[in-house]
Amino acid sequence: MKSKNPLHIYRKTATTTASPGELVLMLYDGALRFMAAAELGFQEENFARKNESIHNNIQRTQAIITELQATLNMEKGGEFSENLYRLYEFMQDQLNQANRDKSLDKIKTVATFMQDIRDAWAQMLLQNSANEAAQSQSVAQGLGAKC
What we know:
Number of strands: 0
Order of helices and strands: HHHHH
Shape: globular
CATH superfamily: Flagellar protein FliS
Mean pLDDT: 89
Number of domains: 1
Distance between the termini: 56 Å
CATH class: Mainly Alpha
Largest sheet: none
Strand content: under 5%
Number of helices: 5
Radius of gyration: 20 Å
Structural class: mainly alpha
CATH topology: Four Helix Bundle (Hemerythrin (Met), subunit A)
């Protein structure tokens, strides 16, 4: 019988129980993790392993950005979604150049943008959570007054 990796089990559980907003946050975190791994690849002394590490981690980051683009609701999001889509396109272009030229600076540029978006998204989730908690408390207090 094959034993399961606890990290794999944890990640699977986390993704199957997360809200859509939390899943987007996980995508941002994954992209940042892969870009950090690509940055570490520049320290590799073996040329082939260095290029492979940089390439593979940039490719993983680009796959996540593609997923983020696919999840944008262009109808409801309007101009905001359009601008975010263009920012993702810019990131994709920068990562293509970083992969081709093995440019650490371009990866760092994308990572900075991604970190800013991730932090804003996390703040929005916290604010929504606080608002929902306040609404639930208000409803509970209202129900208590009627009993």
